[in-house]
Amino acid sequence: MELKTMNIKGKEYVQVNDRLKAFRSMPEFSGWSLTTEIVELKDDSCTMKAVITDDQGRVRATGYAREVIAKSPVNKFAFVENCETSAWGRALGNLGIGIDSAVCSAEELLQKLAQDIPAKTPAEKAKETREANKKAFEERFASMYAYFKGQPKWSYTLEDRFNAVMKEATSKGYEPDKCSEMLEIFDKLEKDSIPDFKPEEYLQAG
Prior knowledge:
There is one protein chain. This protein is an alpha+beta fold. Helix content is 52%, strand content 17%. The protein has helices at residues 16-25, 75-95, 106-115, 122-149, 156-171, 176-183, 185-192, 199-205, and strands at 6-8, 11-13, 33-41, 45-53, 59-68. The strands form two sheets. A three-stranded antiparallel beta sheet has the order 3-4-5, with helices on one face. The longest helix is centred in the middle third of the chain and has 28 residues, at 122-149. It is rod-shaped. Residues 194-206 have low confidence and may be disordered.
């Protein structure tokens, strides 16, 4: 029986669902069963064993799989289910279904490739942090800016002060501590220009 394949890095791999459909439909496996059992289950990982038995109850193939919660986005909410699927794929492959090019399934290889992505360098992590700080500050700045500009006592003087705060934030590389200090400038704007505005209430609501 010819199975559909997926090309990964120039090599063809069969997905677990196609191996499973072949197992359930091929006459030579009529009366056979595929079962799984949990070997070990922890809060962050799972190990499963899949067993294929024939119509006489004899074990014809087995397959093991282990999944870790942090290994992929899917595992964050379905690592047990994913582990069972992986175990099925290994057992069906060991039985000889869909192994013209490899025993491992397409899903198994894709997960392995995802783990092989090089870890981010300190410089890359620092850049991401700076960008996150920048986004957080700019969103906060824009929100407060919009509020103040809508007040009746808005003036060009206040406009200049807001622009000065943004310029200073840029020069400081959007460092969290520096940005917090600069946002405190808005508290003073209330005292100087808009007495009805209570910044402490705004900050709690934000």
